[in-house]
Amino acid sequence: MKKLLLLLCTVMGAMLLSCKRPAVFSGEEKALICRGTAQTPFRVLKITNTQDAIILRTPCSDIENFANDSTLALLIARLKTTLAAENGVGIAAPQAGVLRNIFLFMRLDLPGEPVVVAINPRITSHPDTTVCFVRDGCLSIPGVGGNSIRYPWVEVEYYNEKGELFRERLEGYSRQDTFTAVIFQHEYDHTRGILFIDKLCR
Ligand SMILES: [Zn+2]
User: Fold this and answer.
1) Is residue 14 situated within a structural domain?
2) Which pTM does this prediction carry?
3) Is 9 within the bounds of a domain?
4) Does residue 176 lie within any of the structural domains?
5) In the predicted model, is pLDDT for residue 43 greater than 70?
6) For the segment 50-69, what is each residue's pLDDT rounded down to a tens digit?
7) Is the Cα torsion angle 162, 167, 168, 170 positive or negative in sign?
C-alpha cells in the first residue's frame, strides 16, 4: 500500500511538473527587465543609435500566458517610471528594448488622465478617412517634431496585466482637445517597427 501511494505521488508530481506554466519572457528579456527595480527607468532607445534603430525597426511578438506574471508587472512598473521621467504621453516596450506587443498610453479622454497598459493590442476598425495630426513627436526621436497621418478614431482591443480583455472606440486627434486615438496609433505602430516619421503629412 505504501509503495502504491509513493508511486501515485511520483506520477502526480511528474504530471504537475509537466503542467508547469511556460515562461512568459525569454531569459534575455527577463535579464533586461530585472536589471532595475520598479523605480528604475529604462534607457529609452534612440533612432540616432545604429543598434537601437535596428531594434526600434523590428516588429514585436505577442505575450502568451501572462496573467499576473511578476516579470510583466515589473516591466509595466518600469515603463511607467520611464514615461513619467520623460514627461511622455505614451511608451512602447520596444523603446525599452523589449520586443513585445505591449505599451502604455495616456487616457487624455478620461478624468484624471490615467496611464493605461495595452497588452497584445489590435486595431479592429477605423474610418477610411485620415487627418493630419499636428506636431507628433517621439521619445526615441529626440528634437524632431512633425505632422503625421492618423485615423480620427480607432476601435481597439487589448488586455490588461490581469488578462482582462478590453474592447473600445478611442477618439481624439486634436492638440487643443484630446488626442487619445492618436497616442494609441503611435504606440501601436511602435510594436510593428513603424515610427511617426514614416507617416508625415504637410
Ligand atoms: Zn514614439
Assistant:
1) no
2) 0.89
3) no
4) yes
5) yes
6) 999 999 999 999 999 999 89
7) positive
